[in-house]
Amino acid sequence: MATKTEEGAEAGTAAQREDTAVEAATTEEEAAQAEALEEDPGQGDTGDEEATEEEAAEREPAQEKVPSGVGQGAGAVVSAALGLVSLSGGWIGTVAGAREQLIGQLRTSSTASVATQIKAVYGNAWHSTALWAGLFALAALLTGVVVLARPAFGTPGRVQAPWIKSVAWAGVSLGVIGLLLAALKYSDALLALPSTG
Prior knowledge:
By secondary structure, this protein is mostly helical. Helix content is 79%, strand content 0%. It starts with a helix and ends in an 11-residue tail after the last helix.
């Protein structure tokens, strides 16, 4: 009996050793497969899936690099708006003119000559309005020029939208006209103060 027990124990131990060896081999094979997949993740995929993923990866960077042109469009619209404000005078020019008129009334005595009163009350206000109109015209001109020159410094081969060019040229034109009118008003070449003599 003692031999049968020893033989049974030895047989059981041998079976356990075989199971452990099989598990170890399976574990080593799985580890080797896992390492191979880590080195080459597309190994288990089909060729069609690889091509689709590569095409998607190629398309994504191309979409990120293309600017939308929204900034240029906004700049063109701002340029045209500033040009219109330079021609109409705008609220800031009106307020600055009214302020200069008030200052002229406060600083001019009632005994001053008519020419001095007209110059202090109306002339300075007119020049202040012309100055603000000129500043808006200059801003419109510079903004329009920057929008028109932007494609030269952007993506090569990218064409600026035609409406952006048109609106920017309108802003530049209005800026030039506004700047010219402001210079004429400020120098009293256009609508000069009336003479008192």
